[in-house]
Amino acid sequence: MTRTTAASQGPAKTGLSTTLSRDLTASIVVFLVAMPLCMGIAVASGVPAERGLITGVIGGVVVGALAGSPLQVSGPAAGLAVIVFEIVQRHGLSTLGPILVLAGLIQLAAGALRLGQWFRAISPAVVHGMLAGIGLLIVAGQMHVLFGASPKAHGLENLLAIPAAVAGLSIRALGTAEAALIVGVVTIGAILVWEKLRPAKLRLVPGALLGVLAGTLTAAGLNLDVQRIVVPESIAAAIAVPGLGDLAKLADPTLVLTAVAVAFIASAETLLSAAAVDRMHEGPRTKYNKELLAQGVGNMLCGAVGALPMTGVIVRSSANVQAGAATRLSAILHGVWILAFVALLPGLLRQVPSAALAGVLVVTGWRLVSLQHVRHLFARYGLLPALIWAATFVTVVATDLLTGVLVGLALTLVELVPHLRRLRLKVAEREIGEQAREVTLEGAATFVQLPKITKALEAVPDGGVVHLNTRGLSYLDHTCAEALSEWLKGKARAGARIEVSDACAYGDRLRAAAAHA
């Protein structure tokens, strides 16, 4: 079977003044999205809100300047909030800095060794199962903040304690718990209503910002007795440089393993986010190893000043693309705006109730718990990928993030068992005519071979005719099928005419991979 897909050409190039205007506008939008998220993720991580803002500044100014992904925005990520909370609870806030310095060094080494493509070989089932588990843990922890209390040390404890927290609320007396719940519910309601009903002309106004504003005004207008975030008079006062004693703690193998886990999860989330951002625009593609190097520098700096870890973050990045950003200047400027706001107007931040930030994170966390991903995996690839998603999700919630990821990665090896004797894959890329290229895959296409496959795919220029010949495939796993699908869609958006030749035995799966090209 041969499938052909054509796509229109991308937009025309714009002049310098137009580019600057687009980047300036986009930077303001991203700044407005980032402010509540930077503070909220810091609070959810068990650290002062200003530490998240410092990470936002470094992610914008430093990583934005060095990034290999032109339109991705970096900053504190909800995906790392759970592991940071555990670090702070078990080892203390002063230990976070050295762990991040080591994690940044690991990312630098990975970038220098050109390992970026290997992170893309992680099964989508593991990634989305991990994110769903993180989302549920964030919701469970922040529910206690909505009840005027502090999250417990373990995510499962937070889940099990929710019924008792609800039972402790009173409808007759307006105490601290009830006041916090009012603020949180107003915040969540404002976000959901705005995102559902906002007019097209105001589509770039972020719901999270309006939610925090609504919660803050409610607390002030009703004179509610709620906890508010604490911000120092000077951003410099929030910097906490690790001492030699703190760095010496890295002699503990447990902390070294934790640093490896932070580096692994941060890198995977960054590069998967970068791949998602690439699908949103038609500009230059991500240079994955360069992006890893930039993230390594950023996390080392975050560790050196005692801030939160960073990753490339999809919410801020998608806002950047949707706002019309043209270059990485928009990400850099958003970091400048965060720094200016914190330096000049810290008093405004002190008016924000903690429950308002918790409301933002409840919405953010719930969206991570997306059953759409597992339904997609089951419908397109069968039961095993769905089971990998479920096992990763349950293990992350019941134990910890690292264990959940390791369980998911171990289960992906099950897919290889029937094909252990024929794991070889031949990948060839050649010119077959004027402005026509062919990529041929022969053998078993599994996640083990994905770096080899993506290297050949990315060598194919945009435009013209692109022919994907997979008649020689004996097996195609869901990780490679997803990668082929995204590559096909990217080439089609860039104006190429896509042709796919597949074998009958794998026709359905390959047609599914090309279905949305």
Give the structure's gist in a few sentences:
The protein has helices at 16-44, 49-66, 78-91, 96-112, 116-119, 124-146, 155-167, 176-197, 207-221, 244-248, 253-278, 288-304, 314-322, 329-344, 346-349, 354-368, 371-381, 383-398, 401-412, 450-458, 478-493, 507-514; strands at 2-5, 73-75, 311-313, 425-433, 436-445, 465-476, 497-502. The chain has 517 residues and is α/β, with parallel strands linked by helices.
How would you characterize this protein structure?
The longest helix is centred in the first third of the chain and has 29 residues. α21 links the parallel β6 and β7. The chain starts with a strand and ends with a helix. 51% of the residues are buried. The strands form two sheets. The chain has a five-stranded mixed sheet, with helices on one face. The chain has a two-stranded antiparallel ribbon with strand order 2-3. It is built from 22 helices and seven strands. The N terminus is likely disordered. By secondary structure, the protein is of the alpha/beta class.
